[in-house]
Amino acid sequence: MTTLNQVLKEILLISDSVTVPGFGIFDSSYKPAQIDEKNKTINPPTKLTKFTYAPTCEGTDLVNYLVKNLSLSETDAQKLISDFIAITIEKFKLKANVVIEEVGILYKSESDEVLLKTIPSNILIESYGLSNAPLPKINKNAKKDGKKIASAQKNMGEVNADNKPQSKKKVVKTMLLLLPLVAVITLSILYWSHIKDFSLQLVSKYWNKNLLTDSVKTDLSDTLKTDINTDTNNYTTVSDSDQEILSQAGFSDVQPINLGAQYKKYYLIIGSFENKEYAQKRMKELKSKNINCSFLAESSPYRLVAGEADTAPEIVQQFKNLSQTNNKIDLWLLINK
User: Has this prediction a pTM greater than 0.70?
Assistant: First the structure.
């Protein structure tokens, strides 16, 4: 029999948020691919999930999903949710935890707060099932092999007397320096939409530290240098003063998302859906409660925007106004990098 624990993972694969009526809200945020220097791996992109305990929260998206995808009646769908809440609360009383498959572990803290401990997993549908990729290793014997090849060619008369062994050593050295670069570019092609920033930063590191020879720089200038400069110029961060203002309002460790220069800097998101029909239903519900919102973009994911601004003080003020007049709604911050 399907349980709500399993369904929550399936929904979070296709949506950034799911509300369990009468219990709380699961929200997920994008985490880009990362290079783990300690373990020598490239970790694929994923989503991190947080949970907000809200026993008075409302919503019909979860019931609609259960009815549509599990062929349940509305009554059975509501019972499945009620059973999940009852079992969870009972486990909390017994000081036991509740495991949400590939999402996290729900538990009650000593201060009586319901919290979610995230489980390391991959619930980003674009990269679901990808494992960590090992960083390429440089063959330490390559230089010796290069010398042997040069010596053999010279003995066979294939190397001109004027072509000194030193030139061969230079070629081998250049090839060794290029091996990590070629490996990174190959991985970038495989995971281009998520780890472009990392591959370009790695190439930029070699470039700026003069680890590439002049001949290699010439070969790469037309293909990589322009991309590096463009990416660096477009990458912006939140200033320390703005970060302090956001932190005071409860927004800390927010991962920026590259929306594009045509968008504003800050957005207050009230819902995010992969399915446009669900997003439109949620918008209709919010407007019936006099909460104005609109689509951030006419493509998936369909994010519902309740406020937008180019400065941190403006967005924080909008957040305070919305929170004062609608204290039961859940808002989170999206930063355009």
Answer: no
